[in-house]
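Minutes, structural biology subgroup

Action item carried over from last meeting: produce the structure token record for Type VI secretion protein (Azorhizobium caulinodans). EB confirmed the sequence was re-checked against the source entry. Recorded below for completeness.
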Amino acid sequence: MSLTPETSGLPTPPVTPAEASAPSDAPPSLRPLRRLAADMACKRLPSDRLDAFLKPGLDLVAALREWFGTDIAHFTDPQSLIGALERDIAFLDDMLTRQLNAILHHRAFQRLESGWRGIAYLTQCAAHSEKVIIRVLNVSWSELASDFERAPDFDQSHLFEKIYSQEFGMPGGTPYGVLLCDYEVRHRPTTESPVDDVATLSGLASVAAAAFAPAILAASPRLLGLEHFRALDHVSTLSGLYRGAEYTRFNRLRSIDDARFLGLVLPRILMREPHTFDGVAGIGFRYREDRHGLRHDEMCWGSAIYAFGEVVIRAFEQHGWFADICGGRRDALDHGIVEHLSAPSVETDSPGTVERFASELVIPTQIEQDLWELGLISLNVCKDTSRLVFYTSSSLQNVPDYRASAAAANARISAMLRYILCVSRFAHYVKVRVRDRIGSYETAEACERDLQTWLLSYCLGNDDASPEMKARYPLREASAEVRAVPGRPGAFACVLQLRPHFQLDQIFTTFKLVTDLALHVQRPVN
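Output recorded by EB:
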């Protein structure tokens, strides 16, 4: 990253009448400092004169003579001198603005800034929560891919050790609830991203399923065959997108059971408005980031995983349950509504009068439906407001095409991330509860009775109960079956069947969890 601007990209300071007739090849020592300051600051000329000029204690008259040189004799009144100084200050402000923008709009810096702003965004959402713990793991996508490539199997990777073994699988550990992964993934390697995303996603899905911690990532526009998401405005349909040969491996990934623990969100969100400083905010000069206009790619865009994280954090803080993280009401802040994103104001009105939305585009209804069918989570605009909302929470898993409509609906519901998040909480508690009691159960039947009693304390058979009651008793039905593992004294195999409170055209889905209570990895089964 270069911090030195090119001369051709900078404006030139105003020229006085005397300078217009002065020889341009005059030695630097004889030219006014105002004509040389930029080159000296950028080290294209020796900076001794500039350093001496900036030292404190220089007499005002001497400073003016050094800055204007012999031209100072042509300023016959204070107002003309003040006007020349103000023009020079404006020139320096503009030069510094271009330099600072060259840094802020560099792709590497944008990536760094959006990531840190995303973390700050999550901590703001959880600032008043005593339940939510945010942990940050600094690892690049290529490092994650190398971790899975070098491991003989996913459960021998460093990520599995950190996510599962050190927390979920260890006495006293705190299981992770969700993994927000700030990466953009594609269906095949490209020149700019040579990593095998599909293989890495497969390993990540296995780790997420083992730890019952769904992993949420960002979808790249390349996954949809686009250069940028704004092109969705000009697409009539995405139906059949995955039928091409280039999606063969990606479809194979979508067909595995662990894919229900993966979620891909889109499009990007605006992490901040353009900077504006009036010179008194501590940076020492007047700065307006969009002074010369901003292209779309010069805005600070970030991953929508952070918006999804806000919705999950709010649901966990309010209810400890995730069944209602989609949709929303215009007059309420709940469900899938995103609150804390900063929406820029329309400049034709006073600031805050009319706000734009903080995502890259408004997704058309048909395209939103197609994205849902493709297993992608879209962040859209709530109608007649500037707020954003998640209307869907589909996982990446490709739902099998059953002939019976009831079976197809059941399969689709069981692949929804909001219900995966729900049953994962029970998986965490079952693991911890049984782990803390290992050795106290004399028989498998005793373990089963204990689990059954505990599960029934979360069940409510009334389908007409209020949302508050259903949040307190989130299960419609639950059962536990525990049996001894042959040849392994003290080891039990457990099957849990959980039916959360939801109903769709008289269709109900039961989530089935199969686990070995004495060993390592639990697995969800429909």
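Discussion: Residues 108-398 form one domain.
Next step: EB to file the record with the rest of the batch.
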